[in-house]
Amino acid sequence: MSFNKVKVAVVEDNGMARANLRNHLLDMGFNQIGCFSNGREFKAHIRHHKIDLVLMDFHLGQNKNGVEVLQELQQQGYISLATCVMFVTSDRLPMIIGQIVDVHPEALIIKPYTISNLMKNIANCLNMHGFLLPIYRLMDEDNYEQALAVLDILLEGDPQGRKRSALIKLRARILTKLKRYSEAAIHYQNILDRSNKVIWAKWGLIQNLFLDGHLEESEKLLLELTASQLTNDKACEWLARISVGNNQYTKAENYMHQIREGELSIPAARLKAYIYQAQEKGDDAITLLEKKRESNRSIRERYDEISLDLARCYLTEAELKSNADRTADIQVAKYLIGAAGRKVSDPSLSQKKDYLLATAAFLEGNLDKSSDILTRPGMDNLHEAEISTITDAIQAWTNIGNKEKAKEYLHLCKDKLENIDEGNNKTTLNMLVTKSEEGIGERRPEALEYNKSGLQKFSNKQYTAATQDFYQAYILFPREIAFSLNLLQSMVDAELLEYEQINTVDFLAEMQNRKLNASNQNRLNKIFKRMVNKNNIYFLDPTSEESVKKTK
């Protein structure tokens, strides 16, 4: 295979290692080689130049790691499946190896390597990539049906060894994309039947069982993985994400607590912070992010991002307070926004900051200033922006009354969300998008209609039918306490232990952890007593309402 036409990027923070790698590539016959010491340099280059092969280190000095850089470029469309990606790293920690494996590189080379081993790996990877390239190109075009057809033709040729394994693994991924979850699960199960130590196949099986509606089976497998130190953290993150999907934030928080705070990745820490916020535990979210921000002070890009996450937390806290009490939170948020990237000239960062500043101005009661910020050059250019920035834009435009603009950006968010694969980010961003949808008012009218229908059925003692309507209202607008209480009471009066994904006792515990006013708390206490009176169904300890929480 001729390498002289292959465009290569080497992303490595160590100057000597970078030079050595470049020399080895020159010896192999590569002559179009770009070298970069960090993700920022690489991102600036790849925006304007096509790259065929990326050799990426994990740790990139005082910058984002290689996985974070790769995920950003994939989301922005600068790196596609047609790009061959290899990681070259000295890291052997299972947590780091797991992060690398999750982004599906063609190969992982552990330093120190021999020159012959490096050359063999690169040659094998490019050959394999060339073999799979017709499939990758169809996947990049979202033409998964045709990609599967081409893949099956290649399988009919009865390839052996690594080619066959790669095709089967890729076939399972395509089936998942096509939402043919049961077929994908069979692939992963067949791999595990041959060897139950293939971790990536376990994660694939769990994902497809969950997506196929086999929730108990997927949760059981995840709980088994929490028994191993190597898989506990990732399994707990999965379990937390499942709980968030079911609006079970107390349960999600408990799973996240099983991961040592120092071991939380940035996406995991962000997820935990949003789980706190969903329960109106803003102080806990702020404390967590402040610790994470301080521990990443030396990694400037990450430090700036966490600063903006913190600013969002403070602005959310300000929203929950009266005009007279929100000044301190707004001032801290503005300081954090100003401190992020103070010495960096980056249009996308300026855009992020401006949208947050527009919300801060609105909360201060300065509508003119908020509107002026939104008219700054580049504010409408959001097609390459991160989802968190677009949700900030939705809030800012909603604040000044331009709901049409907000709805336009909401559709953009949902389109982008489809292309997010990393689980923690997807769940966190989905929470932001849902909040934006609620803020515009897209969900509330429909939820109110379901709730009204449920109340009519409930008054006629049609408790099971009422539960169906209250459940729909709750799913559409879970933040509304009345919808949650109506659902819980209806489930109890219908004597249901479970409905859809909701366990009645779990739901009671979830409600007991939410902040309720005196009237709602009184109503919840009455529902609890009704459940105690039906102890043959719910098995509650009548001596204490706290007994429910203790069972969790």
Automatic annotation (TrEMBL):
Keyword check for Phosphoprotein: yes
Matching InterPro entries: CheY-like_superfamily (IPR011006), Sig_transdc_resp-reg_receiver (IPR001789), ST_Response_Regulator (IPR052048), TPR-like_helical_dom_sf (IPR011990)
Pfam families with a match to the protein in the record: Response_reg (PF00072)
Top-rank taxon, per record: Bacteria
Sequence positions bearing 4-aspartylphosphate: 57
SMART domains listed in its UniProt record: REC (SM00448)
Residue ranges constituting the Response regulatory domain according to the UniProt record: 7-126
Keyword line: Phosphoprotein
Protein's UniProt name: Response regulator
Organism: Paraglaciecola aquimarina
